[in-house]
Amino acid sequence: MTKPKVLISDKMDPNAARIFEERGCEVDVITGKTPEELKATIGQYDGLAIRSSTKVTADILEAADNLKVIGRAGIGVDNVDIPAASAKGVVVMNTPFGNSITTAEHAIALIMALARQIPAANARTQAGEWPKSDFMGVEVTGKVLGLIGAGNIGAIVASRALGLRMKVVAYDPFLTPERAIELGVEKVDLGELLERADFITLHTPLTDETRNILSRERLAQTKPGVRIVNCARGGLVDEAALKDMLESGHVAGAALDVFAQEPAKDSPLFGAPNFICTPHLGASTTEAQVNVALQVAEQMSDYLVDGGVTNALNMPSLSAEEAPKLKPYMALAENLGSLVGQLAHGDLPKISVETEGAAADLNQKPIVGAVLAGLMKRYSQSVNMVNAPYLAKERGIEVREIRNSQRGVYQTLVRVTVATSQGDRSVAGTLFGNGQPRLVEIFGIGIEAELAGEMLYIVNDDVPGFIGRVGSLMGEHGINIGTFHLGRRATGGEAVMLLSVDQKIPQDVIEAACALDGVKVVRGLSF
Ligand SMILES: NC(=O)C1=CN([C@@H]2O[C@H](COP(=O)(O)OP(=O)(O)OC[C@H]3O[C@@H](n4cnc5c(N)ncnc54)[C@H](O)[C@@H]3O)[C@@H](O)[C@H]2O)C=CC1
Ligand SMILES: O=C(O)CCC(=O)C(=O)O
Hints:
Blueprint: E1 5-8, H1 15-22, E2 26-29, H2 35-41, E3 47-50, H3 58-62, E4 69-72, H4 82-88, E5 91-94, H5 100-116, H6 118-126, E6 144-148, H7 152-163, E7 167-171, H8 177-183, E8 186-187, H9 190-196, E9 199-202, H10 216-220, E10 226-230, H11 239-248, E11 251-256, E12 275-277, H12 286-306, H13 322-343, E13 350-357, H14 364-376, H15 388-394, E14 398-404, E15 412-420, E16 423-431, E17 437-442, E18 445-449, E19 454-461, H16 466-476, E20 481-488, E21 494-501, H17 507-514, E22 519-526
Parallel strand pairs: 1-2, 1-3, 3-4, 4-5, 6-7, 6-9, 7-8, 9-10, 10-11, 11-12, 13-14
Antiparallel strand pairs: 13-15, 15-16, 16-17, 17-18, 19-21, 19-22, 20-21
Helix pairs in contact: 1-12, 5-7, 13-14, 14-15
This protein binds 1,4-dihydronicotinamide adenine dinucleotide (NAI) and 2-oxoglutaric acid.
The site of 2-oxoglutaric acid has 10 residues, from loops.
């Protein structure tokens, strides 16, 4: 088996490359590529490990023909076009906790640096000025810290600030009253936070709701003398308004680790009074970088080598223990989805995936994803489990999951039913003891067959001599039959025939089969 190939395209702790190699991947570490260079080479990689410098745009993804996973060694994935990755069937993962403590500590460091004007005092002291009387600071003890965003990092900042004897008020629409009590913070609305806070620190992602959350109007509502820290994302604060308010003295100090445009080389804030900045250093400690590098390499190799999915932003999780159990089910589910997709006519507005017996105890999401991947192959060849649910949604297909843990005739069963203009049509399959998938029912008729390679599907009247006529037809056209499977609704009623053949069935043979006496449907199938 060829090894999955991974590109590490941003500066990352060497532990990442070591883990990839130990886990059976080939790794190239090439940082500093231009977008054009990345686009020219991305086609050869199965995995791309990044931090924040590499921008994974739709244009780059277009050339990423073998890419299966993008791993962000860090939290924010705003440098990845996730909808484009999903459409391409590429899993996007991050490492949501590895750098949280480090980033929270950076926010606290910036709060302290603002309170005591440490950077300016340091610069002037080292310039030989000894400017003791110019640097009157403030204590943080007893001051109100306004936390915007109380997720992983915000919660750690709150705990550290409480240790510094600050009073913490938090604005986060998703913060429950119970969690606020647990964190020891007072949950407030944004207006109250702006009015009360002596220090404001931001810890939200950049979204349509949070963009410019500290706008000019909101900055004007803050308490005079407020100090502001942003270690989350550029774009949360109106930088031009912040500059004006630093100049007017309404804002007594501001510290930014992140900027709307990065790298920030000529921000209007540079040189503003009491302005401090760092070049997106929030996550830059040895500890955090080892954490995120190890974690991203482990997660990505789990996916590339064993199919396990952890911390994916565009796909449900699947543990490395679950993955081998689910693998044969996913093969079965994909074949069943593909079968209904090839057999049913017209649009398929509704699909239900029912699991029975042992299959019902498993994680259903990957099974449903695999059914959709099989089904959606009728629309696109580049479909997989990652993009199939998105494609199905785009086409307005309604998907239902039904679990039935009681066993029926089979110890384990997956049934796929689609609503067609002729009514519901369903196919079902099971797994043999050795994990081999088998079709066991097609549109209400019991039949046992392996769905593989090229096949011929015929629905006919159950009459003597028909099987021989089909055999002769295949022989006349030089088509070798591998296996022959039969089922019927009742003696003399509707019968189904599934043949596996050694080549794709040509259209003229399908037409000749259609012309046989008693034939109702003929279809060539590919798996
Ligand atoms: N400077 C740096 O180097 C680093 C920056 N970050 C950034 O820090 C930010 C926070 O990261 P985490 O705490 O891990 O994320 P998280 O997802 O754990 O927390 C984000 C919080 O923001 C809240 N939120 C969402 N919309 C909001 C809104 N409109 N108003 C108020 N709160 C809202 C959410 O409810 C959530 O509690 C992210 O943007 C991340 O990219 C993370 C690591 C390093
Ligand atoms: O990788 C970095 O240095 C940036 C970290 C970051 O911004 C994040 O994890 O969201």
